[in-house]
Specification:
By secondary structure, the protein is of the alpha+beta class. The chain is built from six helices and eight strands, in the order ααβββαβαββββαα.
């Protein structure tokens, strides 16, 4: 849906890097086998889409090779003029309830802790969830939809390969949109720090 791609582009433009790739991710995610259509929600105000969240399947593997299917979401987008007004919270809380109804018990994301701790996410270290080489990224956050679902094990997280984005394809895709200036914002330095930090 082009309207969702447009709003995602506006929501993320120059936020984490000059420009953004999240609108391209929205575009390719819908046709990926890990995409979960039942957990794709939009928020409308005055007959206009102002927010969107999309989920994909992800995996956790324990030390014995047991594989557990879980969720990740992203991008979650709210038009800039509607941000910091509670719409993102509304969208996420609704999606959490629907995810529980579908039988999922865990969500793992990469995001700014400032935005997600208030939604019940905690450091991956507290749930013993790492990525390869026992690395615990500061930006990797975990939410149990059912308390105790990760208890007593060590887990390694593997996200969907839909997130392996080709930046050349992003540029090609973005060229069909209205031109917007790429520039530096302080939030990009914040993203750089969070995305390269780990918990020991």
């Amino acid at each position: 849906m082009r309207e969702v791609e447009e709003l995602t582009r506006k929501a993320f433009w120059n936020l984490n890097v000059p420009g953004c790739n999240e609108h391209y991710l929205v575009h390719i995610m819908r046709n990926h086998p890990d995409f979960i259509p039942e957990l794709n929600f939009v928020l409308e105000e005055n007959n206009m889409i102002i927010g969107n969240v999309m989920y994909t399947k992800a995996k956790l593997m324990d030390e014995n090779g047991y594989e557990k299917q879980i969720l990740t979401f992203g991008p979650v987008s709210v038009l800039p003029e509607y941000q910091r007004m509670g719409y993102g919270k509304l969208l996420l809380e609704y999606s959490f309830e629907k995810a529980k109804e579908l039988g999922y018990d865990t969500i793992v994301i990469f995001g700014n802790p400032d935005n997600y701790v208030s939604r019940g996410f905690k450091s991956c270290k507290k749930y013993n969830v790492c990525i390869k080489n026992d690395y615990y990224p500061s930006a990797m956050l975990v939410k149990e939809l059912r308390e105790g679902s990760l208890e007593g094990k060590k887990w390694c997280y593997k996200e969907s390969d839909v997130y392996d984005i080709d930046e050349k394809e992003v540029e090609k895709f973005d060229s069909a949109f209205e031109k917007m200036e790429k520039k530096f914002k302080p939030s990009q330095e914040e993203f750089y720090i969070h995305s390269r930090s780990r918990i020991v």
